[in-house]
Amino acid sequence: MSGPITSPLTRRALLGLTAAAAGALATGCSGGKNSGSATEGAVRVGWYGGDPVHAAMKKALDAYHGKHSGVTISTEFSPFDGYWDKLATQTAGRNAPDVYRMSMSYFADYADRGALLDLSDQLGSAIKTADLDADVAASGKIDDGTYGVGQSSISHAVFSRPAAWQKVGAEVSTADWTWESFAEAAKGYAGEAGKGMYGTPDVGGNIQIFEPYVRQRGREIFTPDGAGLAVQTEDLEEWFAYWQDLRSSKAAPPSSITAETGDFATSLLATGKSPLSFGWVQQITFYAPLVDDPLEVAALPSPEAGSLSGQFLKALDFWVVSSTSKNQQGALALVDYLINDPGAIKTLGLTLGVPPSKAGRDQLGSDPDSPEGKAIAYVEKIKDKVGKPPAAWPKGYGEIQELFGKLNEDVGFGKSDPAKAAAQFMTEAKQSLNG
């Protein structure tokens, strides 16, 4: 995602989670599924994100309090980086927020360690799920439990700036591009645009973009149980080599520049140094204010023109309830509000992703030329053509994500080569899964 790429849990945070699990098990794990009240009492809510997320969440929660004056809501929020160390410390001290935002990157770690309430008995009653997309509802399942409710229904996308391509006379067909034609287009743009301009950001270190690439080959990165690797060494080697070729040809930036483009504002798309960016579809709403002309949304390149076999729709982030919450009924009622209430859906917009229900998408997608309308139209267009979503990312995913990025960087800096990086990933990723 050449904008923000999620950061892994630090080892200190993981140790905190381990301590939390021990504490939860020693005390029976929770305050009881029926603890508290749905219409009164205190509810703490935590989330990560940027200023647009914070503003929308606070407005939505103020509206909830206006409907339920007996509920006192306190909030805590931060950027994605820094959120996880604090949350792990709170969880270890049995003091996590009642409701909090959970990334798929760490979902399995928290569920496995007993930090999350199993919502299986609450779905369909305390939390209404009848209108949610089936794949999103299933995304919250781990083993025999359901530990989160998806905030969104999203897929991978490429955000392309047609005016930038036209300005340099470069040709591109985003509707049916393959990985081969994508590379040709990126090289053509860089050659025409001149020094310091690139046809694509370097997403070779982004395992979340690598995932659909592997699925296009009929495989997954992980085994269904999350205990092993299903990806093959040649998949990794060819991926790392593909992006090294783009860097060598100056179609993608050198690793030193990529290291400086860690958020939306500093991305190559926002700074005018590339005509495109990769990401999750709702991120068009973050990029759009940063560029001077309209963006279009396209699917990822694929081996066969127009194929969507590698892509999928799923929730990337969840609302979860702490297993140690003293007001679980209040927490459940708030989650139901955030995903189902028309007023909340309108207020939140696409700040948390494309709504996980058609009713929500219809509500927000009335202007097809707006960034929101384009994102929603894209989801509606591909939803019946994409593949089945993969299982939840496994425990240890955060470390594996960091490893993947480092290996691509090592290749870019000449410290390694694609073959060595692929072999190193296979060895060290297995260790993370078994750690």
Could you describe the 3D structure shown?
The chain has 435 residues and is of the alpha+beta class. Helix content is 43%, strand content 10%. The protein folds into 2 domains: 11-152 and 316-366, 3-Layer(aba) Sandwich (D-Maltodextrin-Binding Protein, domain 2), CATH 3.40.190; 156-311 and 396-434, Periplasmic binding protein-like II (D-Maltodextrin-Binding Protein, domain 2, 3-Layer(aba) Sandwich), CATH 3.40.190.10. The protein contains 17 helices and 10 strands. The strands form 3 sheets. The chain has a 5-stranded mixed β-sheet. It has a 3-stranded antiparallel β-sheet with strand order 8-7-9, with helices on one face. Helix 2 packs antiparallel against helix 13 (342-348), helix 14 (358-364) runs antiparallel to helix 15 (371-382) and helix 16 (397-412) runs antiparallel to helix 17. The longest helix has 17 residues, at 51-67. 52% of the residues are buried. Residues 1-9 and 22-32 have low confidence and may be disordered.
